[in-house]
Please model this.
Amino acid sequence: MSKATDGAEAYEHAEAGEDRLLLITLAAAMVSTGQPTYEVEEDLMAVGRHLGYPQVQPAVAPTGITLALGPGRSATVETVSGPLRLDQSAEARWIRQQLLNDEIDRGQALSRLGALRGRPERYPNWLSAPAWVVASIGIGLILQPGVANIIVTAIGSLVVLGLSRLSGRSRALATLLPSVAAFAVGCLVFGAASAGLLEGALRTLLPPLAILLPGATLVTGLSEIAAGAMVAGVSRVGHGVVQLLLFALGILAAAAAWQAPESALSNIRVDELGWWATPLGLLLVCVGVCLTESVRMAYVPWVLLVVVTAFGAQLLGQQVSGAALGGFLGGLAASFAATVVELLRPQLPRLVLFLPAFWMLVPGSLGLLSVTELAFGPTGSPSAGFGVVELVAAIALGLLVGSVLARSLRTAIHR
Model:
């Protein structure tokens, strides 16, 4: 074998190694955005084919990826770090699109992916930190629009925000954060209810905890199981169930500490503010999420459009046939509308539009029933537990159907 041949093989081997590193780094970033694993594998194979590897073999899980460029070729394993902010998720999505459009080379893409997690927040801390409270107040205006309830929601969200920041310095607190946060908010809400300051304690519990609740994890896991990604789906659902049990522990402890009566765990909705509370709540949720997740303010109207579409579809389904149909239509509308907007405005990544609607959809559909079932309070029953499972499955099916319809539309337009 000639030296020229040896040199060519060495160059080809080095190039393949760089491409494998690029693909697996991109895969880790896409998993960190919260995408279902089956979507990550489809996107990754599309990029692999474009780079000249039609038989790329990815095995994607929520915590790690194994990837080979073809059968019998060397494989690389990569662990997945914590979740990305929405602005970082948008950058990962944009890098993938630029690779497919040949707008950047492999080295540039790998460099930008490597710097992704070090990307600074767009807004200063004094603006992004209170945004958590703004989003919680928005959810409170939708679920429990009472004056006292909103005040307690704001105080509770400040407590949860503080605990969340402290959890970054303590591994033990990070592990027990759901229980500690639920206990703290539960004590605040049950204490205010015992003093006669508010009604509808159960609904008031949810808004401060909504961002921490694992509803999105459960729904994504079920959609993965339905799509055939059984290992990823089962592990994600298992993780979500454990998180729910930790929340239940905190709520039970708070209820026991304040000797909360059965009426405190009843489904009572306080409506003191009128019709304008819901649209204002939706706006506050969008602004709060965009500030917290460093999303450009120019994107807020589009985010709001997708959120309103999903919320309207959910509300329509609930009026026609109940919460299950509402969850299905809301999930379908969120997934499909985000893709349509991305097709019309390619600079708006689908994830930035879709995830805020998804986060709004999960608390809206599952909030009260989930917390009721988690607390295993006097109002809990097997039928209520089945209702929660039914709602989660309905949203997951809606997301899956919406994703399939969106991909079909995208393929048809490209053709």
Remarks:
- The chain has a mean pLDDT of 81.
- Strands lie at 57-61, 64-68, 75-79.
